[in-house]
């Protein structure tokens, strides 16, 4: 199969799971097909799927990611010893682990084509990621606590693992509790990474955007917490601060140069 054939196959399979969509016409336009497929991935609940579906999905997603261009850890230049700043799409980063800014439900973003990082990571990892997260949630019998972290395989992403952490949601003015929870996210991820012999980890801008944590203060907490952890534990783990927006890049660049 080529990419178009794979995409249409996946759309048809996903539509067949939804009786309300049985008569939906697949658009001819490639961009609209891609949006429809992503939407169907986004709203699909975790459940079993055929080997043929998984094989086709994996081939499709890996080629889609490769076409965007993969950035490898060894091609990055540190800003400081073992600390990196990189602006780009975290789903194209090849390192040991990336951090997902998850929600407490731990199943990913169900909003079709939403722009959050949780949506992007689940989309390009494939349906097995949501199933793996569901296993964790079912095993612990509750939603994920703010400030903690869990680990899953990365499936189709170029990294090896995804660390899922739930950052604080800021309502109104920023509180000390909000700050403490955000710092806990970074510490929890670093501890979990080292417990699993992970040597490089990429942090997204946890809790900014949809969770309304001020970007500048979030960046300051991120850098301070990582440096304190590395100093206290003598850790040699390589840390990438991944940003997507120009605003965050400028904030991190300024803070890392000051320190």
Structure description:
This protein has 259 residues and is an alpha/beta fold. The chain starts with a helix and ends with a helix. The protein is built from eight helices and eight strands, in the order αααββββααββαβαβα. Helix 6 crosses helix 7. The protein is globular and about 55 Å long. A six-stranded mixed sheet has the order 2-8-7-4-6-5, sandwiched between helices.
- Helix content range of the residues, please? 40-55%
User: Rg from C-alpha positions?
Assistant: 19 Å
Number of strands: 8
Net shape: globular
On the 0-100 scale, what is the average pLDDT? Answer: 96
List low-confidence stretches.
none
Q: Cα distance, first to last residue?
A: 52 Å
Put simply, the count of helices is: 8
Helix-strand makeup class:
alpha/beta
Strand content: 5-15%
Strand order of the largest sheet: 2-8-7-4-6-5
The topology string of helices and strands comes to: HHHEEEEHHEEHEHEH
**Biggest sheet overview:** 6 strands, mixed
Outline of this structure?
This protein is an alpha/beta fold and 259 residues long.
Question: What's the arrangement of secondary structure elements?
Answer:
Elements: H1 3-16, H2 30-43, H3 51-68, E1 71-72, E2 83-87, E3 93-94, E4 97-102, H4 117-125, H5 127-140, E5 149-153, E6 161-166, H6 176-195, E7 200-203, H7 215-233, E8 238-243, H8 246-258
Parallel strand pairs: 1-3, 2-8, 4-6, 4-7, 7-8
Antiparallel strand pairs: 5-6
Helix pairs in contact: 1-2, 1-3, 6-7, 7-8
Which labels suit this protein?
8 helices; 8 strands; six-stranded mixed beta sheet; 259 residues; alpha/beta
